[in-house]
Every structure is written in C-alpha cells, then in structure tokens.
Amino acid sequence: MFELMDEWGPEKVVTVNHQRSGMQGVLVIDNTARGPGKGGTRMRADLTVQEVARLARVMTWKWAAVDLYQGGAKAGIRFDPASPRKEEALRAFARMLRNEVPSEYVFGLDMGLAEQDAAILCDELGDRGAATGTPAALGGVAYDALGVTGHGVAEAVDAATTHCELDDRRVVIQGFGAVGHATARRLDELGYRVVAVSTAAGAVHAPDGLDVAELLALREEHGDALVDHASGTRLEAGQELMLETGVLVPAAQQGVLHAGNADDVRARLVVEGANLPTDEAARQQLAARGVTVVPDFIANAGGIIAAAFGMRDRYSPFGVEVEQIIPTVTERMRANTRTVLETAERSDTLPHAAAGALARERVREAMRLRGQLPPT
Ligand SMILES: NC(=O)c1ccc[n+]([C@@H]2O[C@H](COP(=O)([O-])OP(=O)(O)OC[C@H]3O[C@@H](n4cnc5c(N)ncnc54)[C@H](O)[C@@H]3O)[C@@H](O)[C@H]2O)c1
C-alpha cells in the first residue's frame, strides 16, 4: 500500500474485513489540506484499493479546481451490490469505520449505492450527518432529478462561447441521460439551438434545431429509444460527433474522441460533460485546429457543488436548501470556466493542463500555510 503514497497523499488508508458477511472495504483519505475528506462511497464485487486511491486523488483535484473547501477522499466496499445481504455489508462497513466517520470522512453515493443505502449508513452510526445523498424524505436532495450536473455543463458552454466569442449557437449533445438531457434543457432556455442528440440506440439530427421539449417528453416515455420517435434525421450513434456545429458536448462515455477521429470534429468548442471523453492526443489535435476543450472536472462539477450543499446542510432541520443550489452552480460554473480558459491562454497551455496546475497550486498553498510541506 505504501506505493500508493506520494507528496500529496494519501494521508490515511483504512482497510476493513468483515468475516461473517465476506465484506471487505477501504477508506482512502487523500489530502485534507483544504478541508475534510469528501467523495462518494462505491460498492463493486471486484473493487480494488488502487481504484479507490485513484478516485480519492481525483477528488482532491476536483474540490480544489472548483475552489470549494473540502479534501479528497473516497470509500469502497468489495461486495456484490445485487446481493440480498447488501444491508448487512453496509452496516458492517459503517460500524468498522466509526472512528473516522463523520469526523474525517462522510459517506456519499457512487456506483453500487442508492439513496436508501445512505440512509442505512446513517442509521447504523446513529448519526444523521454520517452520509450525504440520503432520500428527500430524510432531508436529502435528488441531485439527478434536479439535473444539476447538466445545468452546470450548459452554463460552462455559455461562459465558454462568450470567452471564445463564438457566435454559432448550434449544439450537438452525445448522450441523453442524467447529464445530457439536463444540458439540453438548460441550453434551450439559454437560446441555443440543439441540432443533434444521441443515446446508445442512435442519434437524431435536425440542422434547424430539434424540439427540446419534445425530446424531454419522449425520454420520459421511451428512454434511450427516444431517437426512434423524435422528428429529425436518424443517424447511427457516433456520427453526431462529426456534425457541423458550433459546440459539441460529449455527455455519454469516456474515450469517444481520440487520435483516430479528432481531426474530423467540426465543432469550434468541445465541452466535456462525461468523464474523460477526450484523450491527450485528441486534445492536442483539436487545439492545433483552434478547437477549445473545456475539461470534464470543470464542466461537469455541478454535482460536486450540489454535494457541498449536502455536506453543509446535512444536520440542518430545514433539510438541504435546494433553492440555493441552481443559482450557485450557475455562478460557480461560469466563474470557473472563465478562470481556466483565461489561465490557459495566459500560460499558453491547454485548458486541462491549466486546470490541473491551478488545482495543484491551491492544494500546495494550503499545505504550505498549515506547515505540512517538508523543510527545504
Ligand atoms: N450524473 C452525474 O451527475 C455526473 C456527474 C459527473 C460526471 N458524469 C459523467 O457523465 C457521463 C454520463 O453520465 P449520466 O449520469 O448522464 O449517465 P446516464 O446513464 O444517465 O446516461 C448515459 C447516456 O449516454 C447514452 N450513451 C451510452 N453510450 C452511448 C454511445 N455510444 N453513444 C451515444 N450515447 C450513448 C445512454 O444511452 C444515455 O442516454 C458519465 O461519463 C458520467 O461519469 C455524470
């Protein structure tokens, strides 16, 4: 486990082994220089300590990049989330981490965990603030239903088009799930023309603009098959990435833009709604052709801004103050997008590198002020 450690963290790794249920788990507290550790809790049968450590580090950079005062952490439970003994595993995990939770880490939702699991974790520790992501009936917030991440992606699009002085308000969105549909909804409100959307079932294209209200209603009714019912030209999934447009928002899967297809992208601006939709080679090729890419951990940070409200209000008798979330996401996403694009221009680097450097600088400064850096 020592090979996971470097100059940034992790500060603490706790592993637990519950023989009765076969549950094994790990908590990785990566770096708390800017605030207490916060990041989701995942459950997967093949979970590894390395995976949790990597995700905890990602959280360190994400919190710092959006300039919120939380540290990076993540917890993982090696157990089948479909098992009828899930609750037993969750309760054992919570009990075995009672020294760390909630003083050093607060549970949250990630792969394999749902709102009710967050409620179980709180119940086991007898502490309402032991987890965020609890059901609305317990004072929590349904982030996906609110569409905060997609709302934030749309605000990032708008801030970036302003920064790049891009007049072309056509947008193509890959993926019409939790992120994609909320991005479309907000961009429509902001006066953009959504010319194509896709799901795993295929894509639909209308150069003069799709009817977003119709798409949202069709999603409710048909899910991914909405593309078979929407008015517009039907395309194969993937073709939408190469359409003529001002803005492209990949909001489905990772690795969709790579060395092999980046030169065929006709958008002027790519805003990453999904995690890791471009690789380094694609970003270099796009930059060489003057295409700006807004990094995922800036553009899709709406959810973590909302999670910060969950953290702040988790003991509040008023519940999470939902009405503050959307205006804050709007304001933060615009400011962060501007800051990163301006920093990238000033330092003549790509936005991904500029955002990473900014996050590292903030964490290092916090470590310096706390006297955590080694003597020079
Ligand atoms: N939900 C969030 O709050 C959140 C926050 C940050 C990042 N993300 C990232 O955003 C991405 C999407 O997440 P989501 O929550 O919207 O997922 P989701 O499962 O709700 O939706 C995924 C959408 O992508 C579509 N899709 C899958 N494969 C496709 C393909 N090959 N071509 C076109 N469309 C395809 C699906 O049909 C679906 O419409 C993921 O990378 C996720 O990690 C999500």
Automatic annotation (TrEMBL):
InterPro entries per record: Aminoacid_DH-like_N_sf, Glu/Leu/Phe/Val/Trp_DH, Glu/Leu/Phe/Val/Trp_DH_C, Glu/Leu/Phe/Val/Trp_DH_dimer, Glu/Leu/Phe/Val_DH_AS, Glu_DH, NAD(P)-bd_dom_sf
Entry's Gene Ontology BP terms: L-glutamate catabolic process
Key words of the record: NAD, Nucleotide-binding, Oxidoreductase
Residues of the Glutamate/phenylalanine/leucine/valine/L-tryptophan dehydrogenase C-terminal domain: 140-371
Annotated site residue numbers, Important for catalysis: 110
Active site residues per record: 74 (proton donor)
SMART domains: ELFV_dehydrog (SM00839)
Gene Ontology molecular-function annotations: glutamate dehydrogenase (NAD+) activity; nucleotide binding
Binding, substrate: 38, 62
Binding locations of NAD(+): 149
Family: Belongs to the Glu/Leu/Phe/Val dehydrogenases family.
Name listed for the protein in its UniProt record: Glutamate dehydrogenase
